[in-house]
Amino acid sequence: MTENYKALVAIDVDGTLLDSKHQVSKGAAEAITNLTVNGILPVLASGRTIDGVSPFYDALNLGPYLIGAGGGLVSTTSGEIIKAFELSPELLPVIIGLAREIGVGIALHQLERMLFESSDELMKIVQRNLPGRLLQYDDLIPLLDQSPTVKVTLWGNHLKLCGAQQQIEALNIQVDMLFGGDEFLEITNPGVSKGFALTLLAQHLNIPGDRIAAIGDQYNDVSMFEVAPYAIAMGNAPDGVKSKAKFIAPSNDEGGLAWALENVVPKTWHK
Prior knowledge:
By secondary structure, the protein is an alpha/beta fold. The chain folds into 2 domains: 7-84 and 193-270, HAD superfamily/HAD-like (Rossmann fold, 3-Layer(aba) Sandwich), CATH 3.40.50.1000; 92-188, Hypothetical Protein, Haloacid Dehalogenase-like Hydrolase, Chain: A, domain 2 (2-Layer Sandwich). Helices cover 32% and strands 23% of the residues. The protein contains 10 helices and 14 strands. An 8-stranded mixed β-sheet has the order 5-4-3-2-1-12-13-14, sandwiched between helices. Strands 8-7-6-9-11-10 form a 6-stranded mixed β-sheet, with helices on both faces. The longest helix has 13 residues, at 158-170. It is globular and about 55 Å long.
């Protein structure tokens, strides 16, 4: 049996929940608690999988649900899978081989963890965003059958990533590709997005479509803006992302998430 929530608020992590120093932004913890006290479900909607967001669920008064891997995974934080969009195992060695040739880092987003194959220099880019111990391997291919992979992230030089994107497109591989910032290219099954996952979760919880808010700062958040009537872009978002939102919050270094939760999330939801 699922809980009864008045509304659902999807919150991106990097650049939204976190400030530029990768700390929970000013006022966010209190604002999130205020949502839950009033029966509103705050859910992280991240490119990360469970291991990458579990510290925030431990520290903040978030609900028990997660949209992870850029929409490739909808689950509870205890690991109960609501929906997982597994990438074809036949495609993964092709993408890994291509990434190696181009010289970009590779991350497999499996159901509960992220696995990395990269040079130490490229790993520094990831470690800026994911502090702590990361699972780094010399060869990811033997690990493909350990758990379904719901997303692949390639990272590194933006021009190299553009080249990888073009080569994958030329192979007519059936995947969707989207940049989550200049240094990260996300690869998922066709049609998979944070927005689609947000819709699935709302339906799973019987939350009406007019009681959904979404807050983000990158192009991989735009799909949430398309399904959430209360679409809020952070002040640090690119102009192309801001143009897709209904509201613009201050930046992540100015307490923008707290501002959004306190000023945009409708007061009627608190009654």
